[in-house]
Specification:
Blueprint: H1 3-8, E1 20-22, E2 29-35, E3 38-44, H2 55-67, E4 74-78, E5 81-85, E6 90-91, H3 94-99, H4 101-118, H5 128-141, H6 150-164, E7 170-172, E8 181-183, E9 188-190, E10 197-199, H7 201-211, H8 216-227, H9 233-260, H10 267-288
Antiparallel strand pairs: 1-2, 2-3, 3-5, 4-5, 6-8, 7-10, 8-9
Length: 290
Amino acid sequence: MDRKARVAALPLWRGPVDPQPLGGGITNTNFLVEDGGRRFVVRVGDDIPHHGVMRFNELAASRAAFAAGVSPAVVHAEPGILVLAHIDGRTLTPEDVRRDLARVLELVRRAHREIQRHLRGPALVFWVFHVLRDYAHTLREGGFRLAHRLPDWLATAERLEAAVGPVELVYGHNDLLAANLIDDGSRLWLIDWDYGGFNSPLFDLGGLASNNELDEAQRSWLLEAYFDRPVTDELRRRAQAMLVASLLREAMWSMVSELHATLAFDFAAYTAENLARFERALATFDEMDL
């Protein structure tokens, strides 16, 4: 049974449905379903061990995020299927995030503060430096075309990890792309918890900054507003180290996807784009030590 037919055959529908494909999914296939005057988003996807995507974790995070008031309701779940209430709104762009940064940050802070209070069962940790080391093993074993550069990237990762230092833990989203934020006209929603896990808040702040091309002033404001204190040189350096690590992780995520993904997407171009962004951000980090 193909994925569309599988979605149409789910037992929760009141009558016949015609699932319509939704764009944007790279780790799953998404459908929009109308049934009984309501609309639903159906996410279809199995575990992706080489990316650390485990669907039991996504389900637990999605339920806790709804209870915390930051994400839509989980309507139905079974192995490989997650059905969510549809949010009638507009997906943000990086420009929207930059323009409405205060409101985005408040949603992120709420997620960090509240989701862990509702989380049930085992929970994953998303530590970017472990992810980088694990990706390096996968790339080396797979004979990736840039495997000769792995020692340099891992040495840089060790330097960045030391610069980040001890961290506090919050429950992070860990994939703060603009496309994972929806504005329904009255409030913002945060969706897609594939990579949800306990982490330093600096990772989400770094991802928010890098994915949405915040300038230096906006990055400083982000840190000051989140931590509610003036930004010291030490905090700025730690935050930049995590931002650099987030970009290396995005580049290596794309490299692993070059080896394993089956979707029609130009991962090689995405790898090159994120390596260039990583190298620019690393140069900024290095200048902080001069």
